[in-house]
Amino acid sequence: MKSDILIIGGGAAGLMAAYGAVKALPEGSRARVTILEKMPRPGRKILFTGKGRCNFTNVKPWNEFSKHIRTNPNFVKPAFFNFTPENMIDFLETNGLETVVERGDRAFPYSHRASDVLDTIVETVMRQGVTLLPEREVRQIKPGFEVVCAGGETFEATKLIIATGGLSYPMTGSTGDGYRWAELFGHKIISCFPSLTALVPKGYKIPDGSEPELKGHISRETPMTGAGEALKGAKLKNISLTVTYDGSVKETEFGDIDFTDGGIEGPIGFQVSRKCVKTMLNGGRVAFSLDLKPGVPIEELTERVKTLWNEIKNDPRTRQAKDGRGINGKEMYRILLGKLMPWDLIPGFQTWNPDILKTTIKKFEYRSRRGGSPQHRSYDVNLDLLAKTLKDWKFDIAGFVGYERCVITAGGVSTDEVVAKTMESKFQEGLYLCGEILDMDCDTGGYNLQCAFSTGLLAGQSAAKSLN
Question: What stretch(es) of the chain map to CATH 2.40.30?
Fold first, then answer.
């Protein structure tokens, strides 16, 4: 089968490349644009973005947007201005999908369903006359852009666009195939590693003793410890996270984190994960400190904790509870924590910080009629230590979740070898590369998808224009 423009990969970048190509063709052109997609359906990874709600772009202006690109922002700049976040919103709304911009300038479909974004893109591309061929796994690329699929089906192309994605979420078809094809044409692959991924505290998972594929990699499927289970599901908002690399270099972020079955995630957990993973891969150590009360100095917090404790002790309900026998120190401590943190965090906080509440067991000298010495339990709460821990809750990071559930792949085809204004290879005329296959990764918040859309559209446009 012959195609004027052949696109390998039907993800965000590949779909937008197809759209850009057909829209750039001159009116009346009979040029054929074809997408080869490995999976039964295109764009499956889009369904996982924004926790299924699809944060498809971020409407920050370039001078702010570019600060969230962790590689070379100058490479992305021409593609960004060629197809801006506002253009992406217009694309979806023009084609029938209402959108909304929320906190942090993040854009979502109004329905908050990622499937609506994917369906809108696919339907729009198909209406333009693009040929989308699912279940076409490319096995070989021969000189002259002759592409051979599993089963022997062969395609010939005038222009070839590689948009195969990276290594993250391999169940969606992203298994790094594109890196091999790029290397065939002489491209250098910058070492890849997981980014925007869960970071696993020491003691959170049960070590399985096996040698990981990547140094520090802990599979998300690894069973959790009881301490990990106690924290799972807790969400912390408006906290401060300080990361220490190799015991000295520090980085502080403010925002939200989530404790999940993978480890520490959420916006600022993901924000720091790139550097944390890279440090661990290089043999370095990573430690976290959570400040649950970043707006309150330690002295003020300590005084507040003691005041709350006295209020609980002197509350008539404390003395009258439990049929007049009163509430013991352990229960009072739990009430105190409920005034200082979300209730769903309390079990985990207590499990990870057992020294704050100390239990003393005293045996009376006389024996009861039933035999044995009666016991009395007393509980001593270290209020100073509690305040200190609220300001400096420490975790040593043991590892990270790998490609099986990371959001994005860091590394990839060196952008020094791709023309930023066209996405064309500097080594092979007629070859274009776009999206996650490139060494181009960003923070969480819609930035990565926008870069995929922008570079994909530019690659498609450039390929179509070069046909003329």
Answer: 195-295+392-400
> What CA–CA distances, in Å, run from 1 to 34, 75, 130, 150, 465?
10, 34, 14, 15, 22
Q: Which residue has the tokens 């709600």?
A: 53
What is the per-residue pLDDT across 265-297, written as a single tens digit (0 to 9) for each? 999 999 999 999 999 999 999 999 999 999 999
Both structure tokens of 310:
């006295």
Query: CATH code for 2-192+410-465?
Result: 3.50.50.60
Rounded Cα distance between 133 and 149, Å, is 11
pLDDT digits (tens, 9 = 90+) for 201-256: 999 999 887 777 788 999 999 999 999 999 999 999 999 999 999 998 889 999 99
- Strand segments (E) across 29-137: 33-36, 57-58, 99-102, 106-109, 131-133
The count of other CB atoms within 10 Å of the CB of residue 25 is 23
CA distance 178 to 162: 7
Sign of the dihedral defined by the CA atoms of residues 185, 190, 196, 198, in that order: positive
Average pLDDT over residues 312-316: 86
CA distances from 440 to 12, 76, 420, 428 (A): 14, 8, 12, 20
Sign of CA pseudo-dihedral 51, 54, 56, 58: negative
| Pairwise CA distance, residues 199 & 218, whole Å | 9
Which pTM value belongs to this model?
Answer: 0.92
Q: Using 50, 70 and 90 to split pLDDT, how confident is the model at 50?
A: confident
CA atoms of 71 and 272, how far apart (whole Å): 14
| Gap between the Cα atoms of 181 and 194, Å rounded | 21
Share of the chain above pLDDT 90, in %: 86
Question: Looking at domain 195-295+392-400, which CATH architecture does it have?
Answer: Beta Barrel (2.40)
What's the whole-number average pLDDT of the chain?
93
Q: Could you tell me where in the chain the CATH 3.50.50.60 domains are found?
A: 2-192+410-465
